[in-house]
Structures are given as structure tokens and as C-alpha cells.
Amino acid sequence: MKLGVIGLGFVGLSLASVLGSKGYKVSGFDSDKSKLNAIKNGIPPFYEPELEYTLKAALRKGFDTTHDLAKIINNCELIFITVGTPQQDDGSIDLSMIKSVASQSGSLLRDTKNKPIIIVKSTVVPGTTQNILLPILEKRSRKSANKDFAVVTNPEFLRESMAIADTKNPHVVVLGGTEGKFMDTVKRFYQKLHKNTPIIVTNSQTAEIIKYANNSFLATKISFINQISNMCQSIPGANVEDVAKTIGLDPRIGPLFLNAGPGYGGSCLPKDVKAMINFSNKIGIKPVLLDAVETVNRYQLENLLSTIKKATGKLKGKKITILGTAFKPDTDDIRDSVSIKLIEILLKHQATISVHDPKAIENTRSIFEDRVEYFDSINDALRGSECAVIMTSWKDYTRINNEHIKQMKRKVIVDTRRMLKKSKINARYFPIGIGLSGSF
Ligand code: UGA
């Protein structure tokens, strides 16, 4: 069985690499030639644990990349679409890339004897497959879905920083579309690939909303605990971690996604909650809860800023060190990272910023250029600093000790992830979510 992957970003490249490394015949398409060249040489265009190793294994087993979409449409039995669906200024989803892929694929389908199954992995709002992608494919190809080709919606749940592990062992496979021989082929493919993973078969619009419901619920859990965290911070002695640990023991709640912090970021949760709000309004359902989830997330940054101000006094001219710009550890991704937003605000207040991140420095530099100073070592980043703000829970930061802190001009630490709460540090310490008596 020959497999095609259209769009080699986080999802597409992880999928192609895992399938290729398992010995499947995989062809990957991307419109970006320099990205394709790097991938061909075993160099992932972004940092993701285990990806380089898996990609190289796939290349050794014959994973090939192409800039020619026809090769994929003419030869592959299963074709995964994994292009981005970013957000527009009003929060709605930008379908231009996936529409363009559908349109080009449809034109190519017209002249081929191949009857591929097109599997939509990109996140799309409910109705997109049925009302937009299928009609484009049928119109361009002048062929009929479920006869000459098929489309199956198959949302992806992998997490950045765990992309390879999640691709190998997903917690669920969701397949949306029409039951029949094409759907059976996809089901068999996944049953063989993931022997112990539940497979949910439903229609495409349900599959599409499952993805949004999943991410929106995760965002809701985070905003909930952040709200509790803010309350704890204002109650002397109260500790959000004990709250999270305890309510997490209730099986109806569960322990995950209850880490209070500076708010959720990244390329998915903020975008998907906004798209869900936008979509909900469009279909006449007031998204009261999701509006609140977003509002709490926005306030989280304001709350953090006021904690920093309380800890340091006036920001103008102060040297502030930001520890971590990646939106979470084990990635170099800074898209929609709260840390980046914080730096922008601190710069507006005319603070002087030094930055440390184990992986994301180059991406951070592409945004701020010479407006901030970049450091490879935590010591250097802290030298002369008047306040350090721990933003990303990189393991390195748990090792911060008095040797590092003595580099600082004023020993003040704001810790959005409570990483130093058990360390005996010689500093004024402001952990988010822990109410310190007399600190404020
Ligand atoms: C998220 C989902 O977790 C994946 O299941 C989904 O497939 C993916 O979006 C997607 O739609 O592509 P990801 O964006 O990689 O994955 O990152 P998460 O691990 O979900 O973290 C998102 C943000 O929430 C980060 O800023 C993180 O720091 C924050 N977070 C997470 C918290 O503040 N507290 C928590 O307890 C968990």
C-alpha cells in the first residue's frame, strides 16, 4: 500500500516519518522546496524529540519527498492532508491552504485511474469536509465521491514535544465519513497500525467537532485551574498545586491539564478555541463558556504583569530576564507563546530584556532581533538582572540555585510554573498560584 502525505509540518512530517520508519512506502509533498531539501537530507525543519532519528530511519527505508503533487495523486492509495489551517484576524479559520490542495488534487484526479482515499487530518470546522472539500474535489475531478475516490475526516490529537510518541500510540483514532469499502480500508489500515487503540467511526461533521471539543475542553481545564490559581495567590498560604493534586484524584476530574501557569499558548489551543467561538456564533449558539475560557486566558497575562510590577516596582529601565520563550518545554516553537507576548509588553514599558531558552533562541531572535539580548547560559542571562521570570517549565530551570542567583543585581524571581518552590533560594520569590503572607 502506497501512502502520500501532503504538507510536512508537525503533523505531516511526524506521520510520514513514523509510517516510513515502520516500512510503509511513503511519499511526502510540500510546496516549500527548501523544507523538502532539508527533510530529504534528514534534517527536520523544527525541533521535536525523536523526530530526526525517526525521519532518518524512514529515509533509509525509502521515504521519498516530492514537489510534484501528481506523483501522490496518481500513485497513493491513502493520501493524508496535513496542511495548516491558521486563524484569520477575526478568529475564524483560514481554509485557503486546504482548499487549494483540494482544488489541485481534484484537477489531478480527473486524469488518473487511481481511486485514492483522501484523509483530512488538518483541523477544520464542522461541515468543511462535506460542504467545501468534497464539492471542490468532485467539481474539479468530474468524478464522484465514494465511487472514484473517497474522503475521510481523521482529526489528529498529537502534542508537540510528544509528536512521535503520540503518532505511534494515539489514544484514539476518529474516522468521519460514509461507511463502505473505502472506510473499511482506512479502518483496516489503522487496526493494523495501532492494535490496541479504539477506533471511532462517525460522520465527517461529528469527527470535525470532536477535535474542537477536545482542544476546547483542555483549554477549559487550564483556564479553570488558572482562575483557582489567581484566587490561591490572593489567599495567604493557599497553594494551587495541592488543590490541583487533590481534585485530580477525583476520577471524574482527572489529574492532567491542571497545571496553573501564565495561560495556554501554542499553535493549537488559542487558535482552536477562537475558531470554535467564531463558528458557534455563526451557527447562532452563544459560546458563553468558551468566551470565559478565553477571557481568563487573556487575564492571566495581565495578572502576571501586575505580579512582576509588584515584585519589581517601576519597569522602565529595569533589566528583566525571561527564562523560556518556547510555548512549552521540549520544543522550539514560539507560536502564540505567552512569553513572547510578555516580552512585547515589557519592551513597551521600556524594560531591558535578556532571554534564555534551551531551544527557541533562534526563533525568538527572528521576532525581536536586537531589541533584546539572548543568552545560551542561565548564568549569563541572569547577570545584572533585577527580576527573573520563569515562563517555560524546561527541566534546566529546576536546577537554578544560589550560584545562579548571585549573578543578579536584585534577587527577585517570579515563577509562573512554581519550579523553585522547594529550593532554598536566596531571593524574593513570587510563585504564581501560591499565596505568600506579607509579600504583597
Ligand atoms: C494541543 C493538544 O494537547 C493536542 O492534543 C492537540 O493535538 C494539539 O493541541 C493540536 O491541536 O494540534 P499542543 O499545542 O502541542 O497540543 O500543546 P499542549 O501540551 O496542549 O499545551 C498547550 C498550552 O497549554 C501550553 O502553553 C502549555 O503550557 C499550556 N498548559 C498545558 C498549561 O498551562 N497547563 C497544563 O496543565 C497543560
Describe the protein's architecture and organization.
This protein is an alpha/beta fold. It folds into two domains: about 200 residues, 3-Layer(aba) Sandwich (Rossmann fold), CATH 3.40.50.720; about 220 residues, NAD(P)-binding Rossmann-like Domain (Rossmann fold, 3-Layer(aba) Sandwich). It is built from 16 helices and 14 strands. The site of uridine-5'-diphosphate-glucuronic acid has 21 residues, from helix 9 and helix 11.
Supply database-style keywords:
Rossmann fold; six-stranded parallel beta sheet; 440 residues; 16 helices; 14 strands; alpha/beta
What is this entry, summarized?
With 440 residues, this protein is an alpha/beta fold. It is built from 16 helices and 14 strands.
Give the CATH H-level superfamily of the largest domain.
Answer: NAD(P)-binding Rossmann-like Domain
CATH structural fold name of the largest domain: Rossmann fold
Number of domains as seen in the coordinates: 2
Strand elements, count:
14
Write the topology of this structure.
Elements: E1 2-6, H1 10-21, E2 25-29, H2 33-40, H3 51-60, E3 64-66, H4 69-75, E4 78-81, H5 96-110, E5 117-120, H6 128-141, E6 150-153, H7 163-168, E7 173-176, H8 181-193, E8 199-202, H9 204-233, H10 240-248, H11 269-282, H12 288-312, E9 319-323, H13 338-348, E10 352-356, H14 361-368, E11 373-375, H15 378-382, E12 387-390, H16 402-405, E13 412-415, E14 428-431
Parallel strand pairs: 1-2, 1-4, 2-3, 4-5, 5-6, 7-8, 9-10, 9-12, 10-11, 12-13, 13-14
Helix pairs in contact: 1-3, 4-5, 5-6, 9-11, 9-12, 11-12
The chain binds uridine-5'-diphosphate-glucuronic acid.
Uridine-5'-diphosphate-glucuronic acid (UGA) binds at residues 123, 156-160, 215, 218, 222, 257-259, 261, 264-266, 268-269, 272, 327-328.
